[in-house]
Amino acid sequence: MRKPLLAALAGEAVWPPPLWLMRQAGRYLPEYREIRAQAGDFIALCTTPALATEVTLQPLRRYGMDAAILFSDILILPWALGHGLRFEEGEGPVLPPLRDAATLAGLRPERVTEAVAPVLETVRRVRAELDEAMGGTAALIGFAGAPFTVACYMVEGRGSKDFPAVRGMAYRDPALFGRLMELLTEATIVYLAAQIEAGAEAVMLFDSWAGVLAPSPFRAHVIAPATRIVAALRARFPDVPVIGFPRLAGLSIGAYASATGVQGLGLDTTADPALASRLVPAPVALQGNLDPLALEAGGAAMRDATQAILAAMRGRPFVFNLGHGIVPSTSPAHVAELVGLVRGA
Amino acid sequence: MRKPLLAALAGEAVWPPPLWLMRQAGRYLPEYREIRAQAGDFIALCTTPALATEVTLQPLRRYGMDAAILFSDILILPWALGHGLRFEEGEGPVLPPLRDAATLAGLRPERVTEAVAPVLETVRRVRAELDEAMGGTAALIGFAGAPFTVACYMVEGRGSKDFPAVRGMAYRDPALFGRLMELLTEATIVYLAAQIEAGAEAVMLFDSWAGVLAPSPFRAHVIAPATRIVAALRARFPDVPVIGFPRLAGLSIGAYASATGVQGLGLDTTADPALASRLVPAPVALQGNLDPLALEAGGAAMRDATQAILAAMRGRPFVFNLGHGIVPSTSPAHVAELVGLVRGA
Fold it and tell me: Is A161's Cβ below 8 Å from some Cβ in B?
């Protein structure tokens, strides 16, 4: 029998829906904080297979989700390309801003596979645990940041409300920006293909900042690279579904889903499930989209929001999830109640 | 003859379209920076009628836009309610975070009209200048922050990527949040009505952070207050149009336009003009939505993006604008070229 997540991504209206949560491995769990403290820095945690495997599996041990998502970070790719990366407390990721051809020329796509070897080892270990020790019903999701979102951090050098440096570069120097996007698109294909070969059963493409773009740059920098990535992966791995997550794409989710050929589309918190369901018809599976702050609040706010999503999604291929990452102040008890609610649907 | 902006907002497909730019009075203009330096702090500039009148009119003197928008700030309302407000260099607005009933009880809605007297004096002076000295074709737009966006800053205490404190309060303490929203909605009606009585010929409701909300809170905290504000103003001033600007509302702009009864809908940078045009049919006027970074880049990027918007909007009621505020590093020469492009449409 197919794992429930993979059945939903193949277009089946599995009910109750399979469930996992974005950033399900993370700071809201005391057992995560313990391992995090052992690991030293965040990149070390992502690149130490024993630790990354353990934190990937922790939420499944507690709650029995239908998928494990590789514990890693979307900025592991620029790190693997040899672009500097560090995480600062209270600041998030900090990278050397990429603003010229010389910095671009310093990127080393040929070293990606070697650099991500520890991540691939984590994929192998998690998959073996899921299938051998944990019952074989949960699927393993690999992931990468989409090229535009990775470019956002590389060009801007850090997080931002709306990434003016990268958007400006795309308008002012389309040749340089195009070469960066080309390099990132190819490297993403290599990276995701390696995750699939190591055991990932589905992959997700996180375009967290897709929503800052005007329509024409959205087509060029979000839809076009995702289309290439999906096509390249499908040619090699026809049975491995891709979930696209163009966060805050608003009106453009229909165009994204039909143009890219993704099997799953992640809905962010702001998307109306009923309207999204019309814009993105089956067999594409929708995934989402409980507000992480409704989960954090718990109680009636969480229950009402969850029921509204379930009611809108019943009868179509669907994967229950949050609309954005879980917030660290979330009570683990709220997560347990949510899992019960969805399982009882 | 009706002023072009007012004709478009009344549902006429005026062509070439009337034009103004969000934050058209601002730091990209040397003559603004000169007055800003004289004024001392930013709140003093907003509340000194001679200076605020001058900066409101500066861009019209240079470029002859079809509208002047009152030079002020959406946070003048909390300031007028007696809630602390200061602007910090490089940080933006800072307010005491409103998190409990005692702080809410300290707000003084009865003092709003008196506190905003200098703003109303600016409205009177600008309107007189426009109609007496400047030819009488440009219309004066008054504005306020929408209650949710004002609440974002009051609860969070400063800008944020996604305002978790206010969204969390709305879920966890709907009674307290409801009282804050009620107070802000009523105060906004009083404030906008006073601007209209002082001479504003249209008003715009800026809901800059509408896009952080999940669908159900969006209906409760964006659509419902806007509906009340539009109804209250229409009852008193049936000929004064309201432009709603639920920024980043994505899929929800159709619901917003039809439920609230606004005469104009501002499109943010990310909205696809053709799709928006189907979701928000005439006689509602659309306004927008050139990417401010395309304007800053200038050249082909600006021209192509402008032509795409004009092509999509021709034949329907439309007001040309940016999709978000002009960025301070924009060259005044690019603005001049843009105005020429739109005028030549």
Answer: yes
